[in-house]
Amino acid sequence: MTxxxxxxxxxxxxKILAVFAATLLVVGxxxxxxxxxxxxxxxxxxGEPWKDMQARSTAEIADHIPNEIWYRMPKELxxxxxxxxxxxxxxxxxxxxxxxxDDDASIRSVRMSPQVExxxxxxxxxxxxxxxxxxxxxxxEVMYPDENPPYENSALLVEKMTRCxxxxxxxxxxxxxxxxxxxACYKDERYPDEQRFLISLSxxxxxx
Length: 208
Hints:
By secondary structure, the chain is of the alpha+beta class. The chain has four helices and ten strands; from the N terminus they run H-E-H-E-E-E-E-E-H-E-H-E-E-E. The strands form two sheets. It has a seven-stranded antiparallel β-sheet. A three-stranded mixed β-sheet has the order 1-3-4.
């Protein structure tokens, strides 16, 4: 191999490394920007026209498409503000967040995980307890207090969660809305030596 060939190989390797480094820099910058950009708001009321939600929200969400798809997701990191004047509440930002609609373009339901990533037990429980406190203050009632009581920061619940036995509770505004809330273990490969938990929240018109 000539000196010219060696030089060419050296330059080629350096170019590949430079492109790889630049890619990592761009990805890192995008991640940092995502973390630094404040979450926007999806503000809605179950049963209202889809256009009303779009007009009220600061997060962008696409139009409904009847007979083709049944839900949409915000186009950026967003939190939910349930805009009912009497029964409203606000969630933390959610990476998983879907809003579904009926054929008449009214909002049918919300499914979300009100967190940006799976969390340690106490951090997940803090979110759940805050949501329950908001619901209690705004007139929501527990549907099955004996079979599915509200979450509480008790030794019994902690023991149940740490052995990965999922727990759930149900709330309602009679004749108008229902909520199902579940907290369960979630295996996160980024934290192989830690227990992490995922919260699932579903809200819609009464189904029971």
